[in-house]
């Protein structure tokens, strides 16, 4: 009942802010035009190949997100809004609501499904919470040897089947899945010289079953700490380490209260640009094409922008005295073996499909 009330309040906020034009605009720190999405990056994203929507019925859409206003993801949302408005000849206006203005991720996902929110940007792992349990295999730590394996999965028939099922079950369409975040690494005050040093490591994890099980599988002791309390918990020794994407370790200043950054690349994360299917179908073919192409195009910009920013982030952190600890391919293979029983048990218990592991391994190889 509480969540339904929250969703109703958020719906009223969308309607009010949409009417008054008070949606959050991208901050003035938006990258220079030279780093903006290129319309010539691929033939499919070129305006010359886009249908004319300038005379189509005007429509206003709401686009929610959870990232901070200065985060490249939120800047990307505004870029989508600006480019779509331009290329549609003004027939599509998108009001952007970053920084959880409309509620937390779960609330916004429920709003999207219910139709009170038109578009939403969030991590793809939410598919496993909303009718696509097989997608949970992506959250098992150490099962990707490289980012390329993850990218191969994104373009596979297996991943497409998850998106199709998510759309069928929830009435939510994937417009783009190529907004790649940095790898998941760990800020730590314990030096890890061998895999045995993970034993008993008090580490802050997101309160989600599979990441917690993954940490236990390697001998660590996962603890649930509110995200906004992680800095203080590291500083006071409540936890010895914390899991976060590499950019978050920098932006949340975790490195200030940590001696090491464990470059474990325990997982990879991508954002999805999702849209309510009924709202998508209400658009003209030209508007649908423009919206889809722009979301993909800005996703390419976002992924490249994140990589460029990471170089500076790592330098800032190491200059402060933090030591990077890298792991060999042999270490990663052993860690993958340690978390593999999680997958095997989920399949044996019938939680995940019987042939999931085989399809997953093939997809990572690009087959």
Global structural class? alpha/beta
Rg:
21 Å
- Averaged pLDDT: 89
Assign the CATH topology of the largest domain.
Answer: D-Maltodextrin-Binding Protein, domain 2
Number of helices: 12
- CATH architectural arrangement of the largest domain: 3-Layer(aba) Sandwich
Describe it for me?
It is a single chain. The protein is of the alpha/beta class and 367 residues long. It has 2 domains: 2-20 and 58-182 and 269-311, Bacterial extracellular solute-binding protein, family 7 (D-Maltodextrin-Binding Protein, domain 2, 3-Layer(aba) Sandwich), CATH 3.40.190; 184-268 and 321-364, D-Maltodextrin-Binding Protein, domain 2. It has helices at 2-20, 72-87, 105-114, 147-154, 157-170, 209-217, 230-236, 246-251, 277-281, 285-319, 329-348, 356-364, and strands at 59-64, 92-97, 119-123, 172-180, 184-188, 202-205, 221-224, 241-245, 260-267, 270-276, 323-326. The strands form 2 sheets. Strands 7-6-8-5-9-11 form a 6-stranded mixed β-sheet. It has a 5-stranded mixed β-sheet with strand order 2-1-3-10-4, sandwiched between helices. Strand 6 (202-205), helix 6 (209-217) and strand 7 form a beta-alpha-beta unit. The termini are far apart.
């Amino acid at each position: 009942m509480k969540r339904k009330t929250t969703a109703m309040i958020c719906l009223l906020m969308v309607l009010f802010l949409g009417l008054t034009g008070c949606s959050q605009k991208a901050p003035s720190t938006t990258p220079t035009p030279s780093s903006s999405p290129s319309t010539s990056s691929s033939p499919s994203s070129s305006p010359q190949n886009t249908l004319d929507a300038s005379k189509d019925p005007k429509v206003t859409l709401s686009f929610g997100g959870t990232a901070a206003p200065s985060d490249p993801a939120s800047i990307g949302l505004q870029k989508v809004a600006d480019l779509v408005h331009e290329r549609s000849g003004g027939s599509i206006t998108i009001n952007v609501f970053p920084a959880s203005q409309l509620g937390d991720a779960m609330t916004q996902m429920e709003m999207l499904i219910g139709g009170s929110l038109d578009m939403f940007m969030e991590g793809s792992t939410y598919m496993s919470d909303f009718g696509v349990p097989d997608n949970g295999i992506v959250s098992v730590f150490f099962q990707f040897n490289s980012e390329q394996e993850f990218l191969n999965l994104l373009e596979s028939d297996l991943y497409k089947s998850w998106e199709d099922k998510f759309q069928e079950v929830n009435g939510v369409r994937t417009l783009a899945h190529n907004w790649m975040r940095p790898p998941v690494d760990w800020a730590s005050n314990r030096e890890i010289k061998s895999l045995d040093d993970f034993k008993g490591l008090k580490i802050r994890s997101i309160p989600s079953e599979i990441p917690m099980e993954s940490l236990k599988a390697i001998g660590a002791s996962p603890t649930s700490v509110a995200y906004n309390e992680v800095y203080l918990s590291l500083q006071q020794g409540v936890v010895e380490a914390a899991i976060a994407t590499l950019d978050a370790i920098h932006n949340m200043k975790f490195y200030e209260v940590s001696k090491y950054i464990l470059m474990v690349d325990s997982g990879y994360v991508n954002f999805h640009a999702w849209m309510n299917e009924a709202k998508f179908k209400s658009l003209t073919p030209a508007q649908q094409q423009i919206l889809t192409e722009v979301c993909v195009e800005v996703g390419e910009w976002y992924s490249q922008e994140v990589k460029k920013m990471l170089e500076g982030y790592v330098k800032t952190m190491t200059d402060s005295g933090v030591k990077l600890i890298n792991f060999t391919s042999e270490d990663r293979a052993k860690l993958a073996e340690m978390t593999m029983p999680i997958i095997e048990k989920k399949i044996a218990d019938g939680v995940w499909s019987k042939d999931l592991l085989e399809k997953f391994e093939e997809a990572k190889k690009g087959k």
